[in-house]
Amino acid sequence: MPVDFLGIATTSNASETQAPTTAPFDLRYLERIVRAHEDNGWTRVLFAYGSSGPEPSVHAAHAAARLDSIELLLAHRPNVSYPTFAAKSFATLDQLSGGRLSVHFITGGNDHEQQREGDTLTKDQRYARTQEYIQIVKKAWTSAEPFDHDGEFYQFRDFVLDATAFEGRSPTISFGGSSDAAYRVGAAEADIYAVWGEPLDRTAEQIARIRREAAAAGRTTPPRIHAAFRPIIAPTEALAWEKAHRILGAIEARKAAAGGLLGRYSTGKPENAGSQRLLEIAAEGDRFDSVLWTATARATGGAGNSNALVGTPEQVAEALLAYYDLGVSVISARGYDLLDDAIDFGRYVIPLVRAEVAARDAERAAA
Predict the structure, then answer these.
(1) How many whole angstroms separate alpha carbon 89 and alpha carbon 82?
(2) pTM to 2 decimals?
(3) Is residue 198 within a helix (H) or strand (E), and if so which, with residue range?
(4) Looking at residue 5, what DSSP letter applies?
(5) Helices then strands (H, E): number in the chain?
(6) What are the tens digits of pLDDT across the range 236-263?
(7) CB 300 within 8 A of CB 17
């Protein structure tokens, strides 16, 4: 089973630990960080979405035109465009990139953030809309004949997509969430299902749930599993933990300076099930398994991808292989110093994981 690595593409170097030292919109930095991933063994980079941020598909197109092999994961919220338009936009970007596009559909886990762009649906309504939206996009990519649609959220007549995706492919669809509605929709529709990094036993529970939901939806092949972590690596274990505590101190200092909330989208107690799970786990303790550290999740209020893996490259690689053995084949590993950590992780961790995965696959093939 192949293993993929996902990094982040941004227009500034801001993170939970530091205010940006670049310009807020720095195309040179965007090119530099995407190239750092391409040059150091990463599979793809994420172009994230936020209501007040730059439009990520434009960034992805800019990167596609300037880099040759890195794959592009475009985050997209269904509330911001009609699905026929989105299908056309995605197909165009896939053509521009030579077949390197994947799309990550975001239903939205925070009412306030969704309402910033006029989305007033309830959470369950948003998931129902996302499923209908994905189904339309997939049909638009594959239908050679015009088709009509009469759904709960969308209605149209006689649509066909002339400019299909590169070489007639359908870009990979990924999806994430930890609520009942998320499991149901994502397991039915996605090629890749994304979860945030949790202890091994909790991750195994989520994988089992996703596979059950996929089977209930009539799928014979379940989605691939993507798990997201924040790696903190150093040459020795002691240095890695010193670095981890410096990072935690920087997060807490920034949060204190902001009046207890970290980031533009912080509104206190998280509404989404994934962040609630992270905080519940952090309340049980700081350390799990070999190198999983939850203090960063607790400090950020469970804000997205926030559980860390702390150790030497060898220790972090060994921990990631334990997730691989559970069925995780896509690993997101965004550091706190976005550029330097992407380079270090690519140089020192990715080769170790890939070599061991290849060895295990060879053993299975021989058996």
Answers:
(1) 11
(2) 0.95
(3) none
(4) E
(5) 13, 13
(6) 999 999 999 999 999 999 988 877 665 5
(7) no
